Amino acid sequence: MKNWFWPGVTTTALLTVLAVWFGSGRVENDLASRTSAALAGDYSWASVDLDGRDLTLKGVAPDERAQAAAAKIAAAVPGVRSVENRAVLPPLAEPFSFRAVKTDDGVILSGNVPPGPARADILTIAERAMPGIRITDEMAIARGAAPGFPALAGFAVSQLADLSLGEVSISTLDYSIKGRAAGSDAYEVLVTAVAGVLPGEGKLVSARIVPPAPETPGANNQPDDESGEQAPDNPIVPPSPD
């Protein structure tokens, strides 16, 4: 009797454990899939981990409102028992700054970028405006961007395409550009653009755009520094306030 009973009990217990284990895995996968679907879109920054029906929310939230809202959405998914909100916030940048520099080695994007699609959008603009040029992304995610920052940053990066060497920078929504134009047409495009209304309610604070230098045999046709700026005879500067 013993030889039959105990192996039978052991086998039954093992099968029960396996059934629970596999069943738990199916529950976790189902909850993870449905919660991720609920968070898609505005909360695509969020990821989830499941331990049975207990959910942990992770990711870098753009702000406190999004952080709390994502946890509320996850908790509302049928089958989720509890939610531990481990989503974090990026650091606050004051001022929120951005810089893009174009040298002979390529373009370096640095400074701050808000969470969300802004980074990808800026990189896409840079790659399309300057195909074949190496783009190095050194941007760091931060809070504090003005609503108009993405539009102004895209404009700034696109202006680098018309500079042979130079840089553009943003501080909050203050915009600066300096460098040498890639050609006569590029010079006119740059001057016209900064003289108009800037995207994202940007404000021009400094523009030192040097016309293309004529190629004179024996002359030094190289710019004085890596930004492409020589001491220009006619720097483009914003008008003085009345």
From TrEMBL:
Residues 23-91 form the BON domain. It comes from the Bacteria. Gene3D superfamilies: 3.40.1520.20. This is BON domain-containing protein. Pfam families: BON. InterPro entries: BON_dom. Residues 209-242 are annotated as: Disordered.
